[in-house]
Batch of 3 targets.
Target 1
Amino acid sequence: MAEYQGKQVTLNKPRRTTGGSSKFEVFVQDGDRVKRVSFGDPNMSIRRDNPKARANFRARHSCDTKKDKTTAGYWSCRMWSSSSVSSLTKAYTEENFKPHTMYHPDTGESVKVTTLQEHLDLQENGFEHKMTKNIEGKILKTDDEQRMVYGWASVITENGEPVVDRQDDMIEADTLVKAVNEFMEHVRVGKAMHVGEQVGTVVHSLPITKEIGDSLGIQSDREGWVVAYKVYDDDVWAMVKSGELAAFSIGGKAIKEEI
């Protein structure tokens, strides 16, 4: 925390503004004083989830050279990084801070932090609390006529034991169900390796937990998410048939907690 014009502010944490000529503001240390930096066009959206749009913006504004955090250009480029806007604008204080693990979205490096200052220092170096996760499940059946693929998009337990994924993480049943419901209600889009245009869609979806299975009379030695996915793209379907694409991969955001 620092003082700016008689008020306590959090340094290096962008926040949205209302009614002004800029979309965001951030307070930074500039020598022996605290400086307010405003940036972002309030009439334009940040399409950082579009890889092409993100790359174009960063190249156009030479973001790799923007190192001075007392400038609007630095913070505009931060908003167009791989980190989500919500993770960049989320503020921690001494009161709400809890130990957690932070990740660097480019290098994959992870660091466990136990103090607010450690969190702020790592954040300055591009680390974030949330990370994008890819959880793969094997395709078990294909339907040539309808171009459908069926299988487990995610498996979280097997024979009652938690399944550890490729990021050395585990997902709780309630968390999975909420994520599946959100995805099916608002997204349902499938891409090839998470990039480019839509190549298919999830047609059928069923999260299977012990509670759901028991209520439906379904017996399974697994808990997870079963899907049926329809492929539109000819090239992608050819890769499915050849075995080059043999698994589902789910991208999403997660908050990591130590177990």
Note: The first helix runs from residue 51 to 60.
Target 2
Amino acid sequence: MTTRFVAPAELLDRQGADLGAGDWLLVDQSRINAFADCTEDRQWIHVDASRAASGPFGTTIAHGYLTLALAPVMLQQVVVVDNANAVVNYGLNRVRFPAPVPAGSRVRGRVALIGASERGGAVEAVVGLTVEVEGGTRPACVAELVVRYS
């Protein structure tokens, strides 16, 4: 589901709105390995399937930061702001990783507009992102993203 805004200023009127969920994204072992390579975080729980099979989750799991790194695509699937000259990821207020993402899982982002305010010619939006794991009972990531639309 995509929620479209005609201009950044429209965000100011939709504070508190549930904006919907995006498409499912596959987090397979090749994606996990690529993330491990580019971050140099090759902990066995992420990349060693044999050892992870006897570990706490019974399989390899995605890095929490890989799950978080999918935030931009998850947000873009749900929120489209027309007539914005730039969209800048300004930061994060809070991030938690309540549940793992086992290799081979599909995840999607559920988005809510927590708040929006004018900031120096831009609209700063605080967006709640909940990353769901298909078939899971707890979210893999819960974060507050700060995004500036100008």
Note: The chain has one domain: 3-25+61-149.
Target 3
Amino acid sequence: MPQENPVIEVKNVVKSFKTVQAVRGVNLRIFQGQFVALLGPNGAGKTTLVEMIEGIQKPDEGEIYILGKKWKGNDDELRKIIGLSLQETRFIDKLTVRETIKLFASFFELDDARGEEIISIVGLEEKKKSYVVNLSGGQRQRLALGIALLNNPKILLLDEPTTGLDPNARREIWAILQGLKIRSQTSMILTTHYMEEAEKLCDHIVIIDNGLILREGTLKELLSDENAGQPGTGRHSKVSNLDDLFTVLTGRHLHE
């Protein structure tokens, strides 16, 4: 993407937990309007990397810049421009959808009109008077996504938002994100181990495993990469999809 200044820049970032190296010298640049997938199996380092980008974890080594600024000393400013939705978000069961949206909107000093707009965007109009405890898993995730979008974030971070959802619920989330991409310049990082999700939603895909970025690029670039063989083996292999590529790179499948 021909832009000079990245919205997010990760430079030589390392993070370990006791004897586990979760992230090992990662470099990544994300630009305005880009939808980026971090694609890899469980334990690949995706969540740890995103937690460092969102300021929850601190790198052991390296630097992370959000709009050219480090987290230290800029926490309040940066948190106002980031929207966040996790794999499982817990709400107060005995609040309605509308009350939950209104509660979170108050944190950003947003009016009721924005809350109603968000309810419409995530398709929960018919459920706005329903208690959260009575929502399906897909409806809860749409509510979580709506809350992440309340403040019109410049950066949206989604950590496996469709894991455990049925195919229809997953596609409802996809439709919301595809609409966001059309109407905004929000940059998104999506962690997932669903190949189809990465292909449908993202224009830049980062394949990560064991804390390392193995390949990155557009889907077309990744599948046409003549150097897609296993590192150090000299092996070259024609790949037709992302799972094939991951298997060639690592010797195993994404869901293993």
Note: The mean pLDDT is 90.
